[in-house]
Each structure stands twice: as C-alpha cells, then as structure tokens.
Fold:
Amino acid sequence: MLRSVYGDLERQGREALAGTSVQPRHIDIKRAADMRYVGQEHAVTVDLPLRLFEQRDRVAIKRVFDSMHALRYGTSAPGEPAEIVSLRSTVTGSLRKPRPQKIKRANGTRGRSTMTGRRAVYFNGAFRSTPAYDRAALVAGQRIRGPALIEEHASTTVLLPGDRLEVDAYGNLLIEIAGGRLQARGRRRRAR
Structure:
C-alpha cells in the first residue's frame, strides 16, 4: 500500500514538472513519513531512504523513526509500536547551470540615455538634485559619478558624492567608494 501511495504522489510530482516550460536535467525523489508511537498525539517527520522501500524493510523504517524521535525528544521506545500518520514525497527537477550572459556594451554614451530623471536626495546636510538611472538599461563599460541613484524593481543603489561606478561585461556594478575602497554589487555571477 505504501508503495502505491508514494507512486501516486511521485507521478503527480513528475506531471507538475512536465507541465512547466523547463526541461529538468535530472529528477530527484525523496520520501518521508510523519510517524508517532501508537497513542501519542504529535508526529515526527522522518526522511526515509528509497532503498528501505525497495527492500520492503519495515524494521529499518522503524529504526529510522526511533533514531529521529531520540534526536528530537531525547528519548525513544524501540520496543513500542509506531504508526504512520501521513506520507510525503518531494519530486525535484535539477536544471543545467545557465551560462552567464554578457550585456550590451556602451557605444560612447556616458549614461544619459539610461537616466530616468532627477531626485532630491539629502547628502551632507543639504538636498541635492541627483540623477537617477534605470539599472536594467545600463550597458557594459558605462561609468557614472556620484552622487547618483541606480534604481531597479526591488532596490536602489546610492552613489555618494565622489563615488564612481563602472558596469562590467555581466551587468555587475563595480563601485569605487570615495576614499579608494572597491565594492561590487552583483546581479549576475561569472562562471569560474
């Protein structure tokens, strides 16, 4: 019976993966069960290796539960019967690691075409009219001097007065902070 329930759960998981627009390189299946000693109220989730099901080894499943119970509660009862409350199956599709994509290179522009406007920003005790740039529109090789704002959907990078920014080939923002320290604020990782 366990085999058929897990089989149904895993079939549903494979169908869900097949219904996506990506093709997984590898599919990994993990099984678990919520178990408890007969008469107890609270169950413990126990990860169960697939080989225990292939071998139909109920004694080994009980031993895994006893070990997990001891780990979680500091005690176990190997001589007491246990019951399975619910079954869990995780079906995971692994994808190929994407190659980093280089972004468009600057063609002599100094960033004016990516500027979205100006904002009043408080620097050093006073408001300054500060240029704002669209992060997604930045191009490789583009340089921007602070003060400036680099805006994107979920965050804003602030260049303080005197800071300098250069966009690398992969869209990372390389920032030289006034005073000489180099900071990197990445969007994409380079392959090593």
Notes: The helical segments are 2-18, 50-54, 58-73. The chain has two domains: 2-94, 112-185. The longest strand covers residues 82-94. DSSP finds three helices and eleven strands in the chain.
